Amino acid sequence: MILWMLVLISFLTGQYLGHNREKADIAQNAWTAFRQRQAVSSVVKLFSTDAWPLSDGAAKDGRWFRLFPDDMALWVRVDKESQRINLNTVADGEIKQKLSLMMGDNFQREADAVSDCILDWRDTDSLSRMYGAEEKDYKAKGLAYRPANGPFSVMSELLLVMGVTPDRFWADPLQLIEADLSSLFVQPEKEKAPTALSEGFTIYPGESKRISVLAPGSETGYLYMNIIMTKESGRLAVVDSLQFMGVAEAGFDRLIELESEARGLEARGKKRS
To answer: Mean pLDDT over residues 196-207, rounded?
Structure first.
């Protein structure tokens, strides 16, 4: 009887400790998420003016760099929407060409399908292109929405287009940062088109400012955000905010290593080869 009581007490103690650990993990994750969003908010406020706020002029050229608001290590990039193709105003052929470059020769069929679906979404008729999709196609898929048959209102609307998956919309932001840092050492023979639709396209005026932030979380998780700001009554205001939560399979060490090497080259006054 005593042995059985000891076993029962041990079991209950283990359950209690496990429950407390689970609650502690939930609380820690919530605290990390709160700090991430507060840090991102600080970055947005920092860059919400026309003047460049960093005294050393670092990363004014639209490159990725690190900031440390509230001791949170963030990867940040600030650039203009003029570097991207506007889905609402560009000609059909340019969208097709851009998607072909982004997705590569091995995915030409998929690129044609995505471009035709995007064009069917924004045009005003109900005629489907060869690989496109109109109202009947969305209905056949059991989707509760239909094509807008008009301009895109927000960038996240692109995720509703048939054929546009989250992977195609976001791709891997860590690879984007790594490619940018690597180009400081080795100049590529030709500029590579971004693999993420959110990087290659926009719906906002060219002078709009985009603040991209990657906030590492606990272990290998991260929060990635694109904040778009445009002038309203003479002041910059946030008009769109996109966010994505992912996992860095290889962690963040490679990015930190590349940034450290870049700072070393810059300190010695060396240019990229």
So the answer is: 95
